[in-house]
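Lay summary. Proteins are chains of building blocks that fold into shapes, and those shapes determine what they do. In this project we predict the shape from the chain. Here is one chain we studied, written as its sequence of building blocks.
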Amino acid sequence: MASPWVEDDEPTDWEAPAAADDDGQTGTPLPYVDPEVAAELAGEGPPVWMGTRWREIKAEHQWEAWNTLRRWVDWFVAEYRLVTSVVPPCWYKHSDLTAELYAAMCMEYKVWEEQAPGLGPMMMWHPHVEMLTARLRRMVDEAGCAKIGRHKEPEAYGDRPAFTLDYDEDDFTAWAGTTREQDTLERPATGVQYVRARVVDGDGGQVAVSNPVGLAASRQPEDVAVVLEMSSSTPSAPRLAVSVADSRDDLSVEWESSPDGHIWGTLGDEQQPEDSSEEERR
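And here is the predicted shape, written in a compact code that computers can read:
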């Protein structure tokens, strides 16, 4: 298509197909970015460790991570006027407080990352600040540091360190090493069929067998029960619902009418219910 802003019919530069680049690929070229500018823009993002699980931050980044988190915590305490019963000076010695504060730092960065007006700060950050401070207050109260005005090491009971579980190793190994599989089997047509599971090794040799389980034939009701109800008594085209208590697949419903409730005849096609989906099978 010729451009109306030029006098000739030659395609303009932006209409012409892009030439192949050094790799033989065609397409719209990306705008040129000076290498120094690109490097500066790349350095504006968060630290490489930020967003990583705190326990998985590499050793060479841990010093920077601790100092960055401390600066953020200092700002957080001053900004929201938090007392030591919420964030004590020994917060870094408590793994639960550190985890909460680190997660909060990552979230606070994320909601302001776009540097544009949005709903994130009001809908995400500030509501969570209230919930966060409530959790911090509970953790600090349980730790007991704020009550005595100094850091308090958690109490250990017996020979185990605090906050460790005394496992029954044999029981755990047996439980964790137990595999579970499920399958669906058909019931027999009549009588009872016994089934069991057999465990074999790679050579097909039997290793163990399970206890047997009996599967009885599906029970069918002796009599077919049908109930008709009026689900909507509208002046025009009232709606009826029929429930058939039987699981057989060879049953169907036919509609009949009677002028007196004694002599019945099949409804004509024009009188048959329009929506047969109202029939229920129970």
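What the prediction tells us: Residues 220-246+270-282 form one domain.
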